[in-house]
Design brief:
The chain is about 30% helix and about 30% strand. It is α/β, with parallel strands linked by helices. It has two domains: about 1-140, Protein of unknown function DUF3822, N-terminal domain (Nucleotidyltransferase, domain 5, 2-Layer Sandwich); about 145-250, Nucleotidyltransferase, domain 5 (2-Layer Sandwich). The strands form three sheets. The protein has a five-stranded mixed β-sheet, with helices on both faces. Strands 11-10-9-12-13 form a five-stranded mixed β-sheet. It has a three-stranded antiparallel β-sheet with strand order 5-7-6. Helix 1 runs parallel beside helix 3 (about 125-130).
Amino acid sequence: MPMTLGNSDTLYIRIGGDRLIFARYDRVKDNTLNYRCFNVNKNMSLNANMLKALNSRSSLGEGAGRVYVCVDTPVTLVPLNEFDDDEMNDIYSYNFSSGNRPMRVFYDMLPLQNAVMLGAVDKDLEHTLLEAYPGATFHSCLMPLVLHYASLCEGNSGSGKMFVSTEGGNLTVASFRGNKLSLLNTFAGVKQVEDALYYIFSVARQWNIVPSADEVYVVGGDPFEQTLSAQLGKYIPNTYPFNPSDVQGRRVQALLKDIPYDMIVLILKAF
């Protein structure tokens, strides 16, 4: 059914390399999730894919509600007390090359983590979305995950928790001491368990993991994550599968495989 937005509704748009997702979650009426997914045609630019999706009138929301755009983008962290928005373009371009594509750098504030997360979106894509939805705001897909994982950690604990998640061939590792983020890395093109193990152990060494005390959580219940969790458990005893349905089980409609976990966390405000 078509999505229609009221003044109090939020339309969530997730921009990924493989899919564009439009979703609205009605938590007031009947806890229902309306969403539409569009597979990205790799022979077209991401902006052309978005224009095609926006022209699908029967599947997109209209109205004056808030529009929240989350972008699956590489991120870099900047200490909060050193953040200067006049320098964020230089900082981001130093860490990530955009090639010939003009990019617009945006930021998410993480005050409890004493950090600012920088991300970027293609400028043409940003322009297209702002034309369709004036006032839309842009955020990193990793922001709700970091807040969610931090909420699951004990603030006064000296032990550590590492959360490992995969999405679209990307492996993201977020490590915490207490409930403070101490390390965040994303590795692209990870499709084999052996490659995932290599990157995780590299991070574990950098993080000075203590196998007898620290814990590792592998997010997801697909065969890849199950195998990864079993293999990690051979070397790090406190390795546990982290199935989203165990955490958000009361919201069955939000647990559809089409919706990435970061978007589930964002829509349900699970942080």
